Task: inverse folding
C-alpha cells in the first residue's frame, strides 16, 4: 500500500509561560496543543502518569539529561510543578502502577542514571526516591552505561519488571530484565531475571516500550530496525518475534509509544528522528499476522530531533478526551498533542 504523507496545521497552540519557541518547525507539521516550560539542560524522554482520583490532574514526568539533571513533573498545561533530587544524567523514564512495598501499593517512576550505572526509583506523584540511592545494573559487564528503560507489569501476579538497555553492548543479551522487589524499610530493590535481545552494532538501543496487554517488548535498534520479544521472563522464550521498519527511517529510529484502541488493537508510533516525523504501525499486526507490521502513516510534527514519546488513550478532559500524545523536542521542551489530531492524520493516510 502506498503511504500518503499528510499533515495539517492546527491553530490555537498554547505555550507555557516560560516563552518556549518552536525552532525549525516545518510548515506542514502538526502543531501541539501545549509546549512545556523549558528545562535547564536537555530533555530526552517523557512518561504519562494517570491520576487515579482525577484524570484531569494527571502529570507528565520528563527527564533532564545532564550531570546535574533530574526528573521533572509537568501539569497538563505544560508548567513545571516539581523536580526530583539531582541525578547524574538520567536518560529514559517509565511508569508503573501498584508496586507493593512494605505491604502497600504505590505508583513509581523508574529512570536510568547513566553516570552511576544505576536505575533510580521514585514514588509518584511526589517524586521521592525509594531506592537506597540507586540500583546498580549490568554488573560485571565492561559496557554498563544504562539508557533505555520500560516497565512490564505481569497480569497474572502484578509483579513489575524493568527492561533496561545501555549505550553499547553485545550482539546478543544487550537488554537485561530486572524484577523490582521489596528491599525492606520502604525501599525498592531489583533482581536480574533475564538477559536477551539482538543488537546490530550499528548505533545503540535506547527506546524501549512494553505492551502489557499483549505481553510484548518493542525496542529500537537504531539505524537498523524495530525488534519485538515476549515480555514475560517466565515464558523462557528469547526468540525474536519480529524485525520491522528497516527501510522506513531517514536515519535513527528512536522513541516508541503505543496507543491502545482496545485490549489488542491500536498503533505503534516511532520517532523518525532526523526527519522530524513519526512512523505509525498497526499494534495488532497486519494480514492476520501479529508479527507483521506494515507502515500505515508518516506524520510530521512540531518536534525537532525527537528522542522519546509516550501516549495514553485515557480521557484527560479538555482537548484530551481521546487521549494525549507527548514527545520531547530540541529546545529542552516536551510537546503535547491531543490524540484526535493524530488519529485524523492516520485515518487520512489510510484512504
Result:
Amino acid at each position: 500500500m502506498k503511504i500518503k504523507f499528510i499533515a495539517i496545521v492546527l491553530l490555537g497552540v498554547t505555550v507555557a509561560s516560560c516563552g518556549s519557541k518552536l525552532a525549525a518547525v516545518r510548515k506542514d507539521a502538526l502543531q501541539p496543543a501545549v509546549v512545556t516550560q523549558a528545562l535547564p539542560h536537555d530533555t530526552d524522554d517523557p512518561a504519562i502518569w494517570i491520576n487515579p482520583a482525577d484524570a484531569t490532574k494527571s502529570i507528565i514526568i520528563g527527564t533532564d539529561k545532564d550531570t546535574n539533571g533530574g526528573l521533572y513533573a509537568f501539569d497538563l498545561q505544560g508548567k513545571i510543578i516539581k523536580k526530583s533530587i539531582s541525578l547524574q544524567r538520567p536518560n529514559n523514564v517509565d511508569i508503573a502502577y501498584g508496586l507493593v512495598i512494605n505491604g502497600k501499593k504505590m505508583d513509581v517512576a523508574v529512570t536510568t542514571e547513566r553516570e552511576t550505572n544505576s536505575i533510580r526509583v521514585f514514588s509518584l506523584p511526589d517524586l521521592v526516591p525509594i531506592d537506597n540511592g540507586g540500583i546498580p545494573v549490568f554488573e560485571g559487564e565492561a559496557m554498563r552505561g544504562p539508557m533505555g528503560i520500560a516497565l512490564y507489569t505481569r497480569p497474572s501476579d502484578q509483579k513489575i519488571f524493568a527492561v533496561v538497555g545501555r549505550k553499547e553492548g553485545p550482539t546478543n543479551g544487550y537488554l537485561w530484565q530486572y524484577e523490582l522487589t521489596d528491599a525492606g524499610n520502604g525501599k525498592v530493590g531489583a533482581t536480574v531475571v533475564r538477559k536477551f535481545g539482538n543488537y546490530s552494532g550499528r548505533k545503540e538501543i535506547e527506546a524501549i516500550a512494553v505492551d502489557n496487554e499483549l505481553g510484548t517488548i518493542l525496542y529500537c535498534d537504531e539505524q537498523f530496525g524495530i525488534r519485538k520479544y515476549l515480555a514475560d521472563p517466565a515464558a523462557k522464550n528469547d526468540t525474536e518475534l519480529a524485525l520491522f521498519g528497516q527501510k522506513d527511517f531517514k536515519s535513527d529510529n528512536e522513541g516508541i509509544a503505543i496507543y491502545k484502541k482496545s485490549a489488542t488493537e491500536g498503533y505503534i508510533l516511532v520517532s523518525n528522528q532526523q526527519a522530524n516525523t513519526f512512523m505509525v504501525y498497526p499494534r495488532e499486526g497486519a494480514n492476520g499476522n501479529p508479527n507483521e507490521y506494515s507502515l500505515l502513516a508518516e506524520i510530521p510534527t512540531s518536534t525537532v530531533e525527537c528522542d522519546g514519546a509516550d501516549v495514553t488513550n485515557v480521557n484527560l478532559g479538555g482537548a484530551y478526551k481521546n487521549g494525549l500524545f507527548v514527545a520531547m523536542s530540541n529546545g529542552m521542551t516536551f510537546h503535547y498533542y491531543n490524540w484526535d489530531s493524530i488519529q485524523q492524520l492516520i485515518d487520512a493516510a489510510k484512504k
Q: What stands out?
A: The chain is about 5% helix and 45% strand. Residues 1-23 have pLDDT under 50 and may be disordered. The first helix runs from residue 339 to 350. Helices lie at 339-350.
